[in-house]
Amino acid sequence: MNSSISFFYFLSFLTVLSALMVILSRNPIHSVLYLILTFFTLSGHYILLNAQFLAAVNIIVYAGAIMVLFLFVIMFLNMKQDHEEAKTNLTKIAATIVGGTVFVILFGAYRKSVIPTYNPEQFDSQIGMIENLGALLFRDYLLPFELVSILLLVAMVGAVMLGKREIGERHF
User: Fold this and answer.
1) CA atoms of 113 and 108, how far apart (whole Å)
2) What pLDDT band is residue 87 in, cutting at 50, 70 and 90?
3) Helices H, strands E: what count in the chain?
4) CB 63 within 8 A of CB 55
C-alpha cells in the first residue's frame, strides 16, 4: 500500500512537471513531446484508479492519433523562430488578468470541494472495467450516447463538404 502511494506522488510530480514544460517550452515540437509524456502519466493515473479501459483509450487516441496530428500540423506550418512577433504590453496584461482569474476560480473550487475518504467495505474492484462502462453507457446514458454519435456523423459530413472543391475553383 505504501509503494502505491509513493508511486502516485511520483506520477503526480511527473505529470505536473511535464504539463508545465508544455507551457514553458519555446520549441513547439518539444512542447508536443512533453504533452505526449503528460498523456502517458495521466494514463498511469487511470490505471491507479482501476480504469484500464480509459488508460488504453487515452494512450491510443490522445498520445497516438492526436499527437501525430499536432506534430504534422506543426511541421507543415514550418514555424520560424526568426519571425516571432513581439508581445505587446497589452497582451501581457490581458494574459495576466485571465490567468489570475482562472487561478482564483480554481482555488475557490478547490476550497469548496469535498474529498471522500476511502472506505474498504464499499470498494468495488470492477468499477472501471469495460463491461461496467459499456453497461452504464447503453443502459443509463443511451440517448446522450446516440446523440453524440449523430453529432460526430454530422461533423464528418460537414468536414467533407467544407473540404470539397467546386468545379472551377482555384487551387492554392
Assistant:
1) 9
2) low
3) 7, 0
4) no
Q: What is the C-alpha separation between 31 and 24, in angstroms, rounded?
A: 8
Q: Which residues contact 83 (CB under 8 A, 6 or more apart)?
A: none
DSSP labels, 141-153: SHHHHHHHHHHHH
Which cell numbers hold the place of 130?
469495460
pLDDT at site 12: 94
Task: Summarize pLDDT for 54-66 with one digit per residue, the tens.
Answer: 888 889 888 888 7
Write down the pLDDT at residue 128: 67
Residue predicted with more confidence, 44 or 80: 44
> In this structure, are residues 65 and 93 in contact, taking their beta carbons and an 8 Å threshold?
no
Task: Decide if pLDDT at 104 tops 90.
Answer: yes
In sequence order, which residues have a C-beta less than 8 Å from that of residue 53 and are 6 or more positions away? 128, 129, 130, 133
Query: Cβ distance 59 to 44 under 8 Å?
Result: no
How far is residue 22's CA from residue 81's CA, in Å, rounded to a whole number?
17
Measured distance CA(100)–CA(94) in Å, rounded: 10
Confidence of residue 31 (pLDDT cuts 50, 70, 90): confident
Q: How far is the C-alpha of 50 from the C-alpha of 118, rounded, in Å?
A: 14
